[in-house]
Amino acid sequence: MSTATTIDPTTRRVPALGGFSAGVLGIELKRMLRNRRTIFFALVFPTALFFVFGSGGGGEEKAGPNANVSAYVLVSMALYGGALIAASGGAMVATERALGWSRQLRLTPLRPVAYIVIKALVALVMAALAVAIVNVVGALQGKAEMPLSTWIECGVLTLICTMTFAALGVFIGYLVPGENVMQILGPGLALLAFLGGLFIPLSEYADVVRQIAYWTPMYGVAEVARAPLTHELPWYAVVNAVGWLAVFIGGAAWRMSKDTARV
Amino acid sequence: MMTTEPHHAAGPTTDAAVRLDGVRKSFGRVEAVRGIDLTLRPGEVVAFLGPNGAGKTTTIDMILGLSRPTSGTVTTFGMTPRAAIARGLVAAVMQTGGLLKDLTVRETVAYTALLFADTKPVDEVLDSAGITDIADRKVGKCSGGEQQRLRFAMALLSDPALLLLDEPTTGMDVEGRRSFWSSIRADASQGRTVLFATHYLEEADQYADRIVLVAGGRVVADGSGAEIRGLASGRTVRARLASPDTTAHIEAIRSLGGVDGVDVRGEQLYVHTKDSDAVARYLLTRTDARDLEIESKGLEEAFLSLTGDPHHDEQHLSEGDRR
User: Fold this and answer.
1) Does B117 sit within 8 Å of A107, measured CB to CB?
2) Domain presence at residue A176
3) What is the pTM (predicted TM-score) of this model?
4) Are B306 and B229 in contact (CB under 8 A)?
5) CA distance B90 to chain A (A)
């Protein structure tokens, strides 16, 4: 047996940025875009919903000082699509853990912080894509009317609001182990979207349903995202949006810290 | 405790590929590792041999920095396990999981390569792992053997100085096993240290320079294959001894070369020894021993006696209870 070591430990380097790189981000985005179910439910479905809800009769009516109902529906659908894709991105964290991939990554120089940054950026980029697609299709269709500045403000607020659902995705992913988290998140988010007034305005609901709806997670973010358009933002909608964000981040952090089992 | 001297003398700390000092690990009230001291030198191929639940996996997890010892220290190449992994010095191949089904084989290797500061070229690694022709296949569509080769490719990307393998040849056929070990030996001759966990005595004996036998969270034997086989190939000398100075004789037998242990059960005397001739000669010439028998211990039986298989003990207990 040779005693001479050709591997010299002192020459080895540690990667910059804890292993974070644009290349890894690229592969992660490619993974998301390859998933046909994600693409359909987060990119195609909200756009289709916009055509159903936002293009019918009454789309030209005013929904704010400078905007019409069609624009109002457009923002709602962009939020729905963005939330859905952000949630599925969040749920991937738990799925990867269940597959043992997280453990595999711990045998590489990748630091946990870099991993979380990558996952957050993937959720953000994908949500931005979902929001952008609904908005671009809406603009091309031409029924939605609002000033460009309002359009941009709504888009940015929508994107920020989708991060609540990225946290929800991580949380639910840990509660429901396995690869089919989306089968719970999909219908669950649709229900929340109904309750939050994304598909049908809350004013159409019975009083009892409306009182419940004010407490659900989509209500607050929807009001926040549409505020530049409606020029209305009840204080309890802000409390709702911030509260649910805190609940989901807290829940995700709690499940992740509890999770010390060896996989 | 039957612990022979390590095959190779331990070098200084910085020289050691792995160094465990008084390592203990508890999970709640369960003590999985109860004080392991171990030094591995560069280029050694070491088998970590022991029954399930011996503490092998727990120890490997600590060497990989996946868990921290409750007490004691673990260093790899003179640094913390995490620091060594960040430099691509330590890699491991686990038996199951650890792969994303929706990535292709090439993407998986490329992804892993991006996480390190320096790696070998992806194509070269794919080629040497023999998975170039399935490089564009989704991991979920690969067979178990192909996935295992992919795990090796990922582990060898950073050209690690220490490679840890958990039951590496499970599911391989004879030919696969042979080519696997010849490539591991070739890497070791370049200075790579290899520690593999196994519960097969035969595999440890055949492919390792050194066997570390663990049981009940401790190292019970440490030496070359020949030395471990020596421990395992002893015989038991059995005789009836009823003389008044039995105690003195037992002391004398204990001091004979090769005697591992002496049991007295009533008038029956059991001597476990590697030199049964010497014990038999003593008993027949110096005492009034009768009904002398010599039994050879099987390899597996000796292995069990060394590792103190818990099921073995339980069986004895329940038999005792019934009496």
Assistant:
1) no
2) yes
3) 0.78
4) no
5) 8
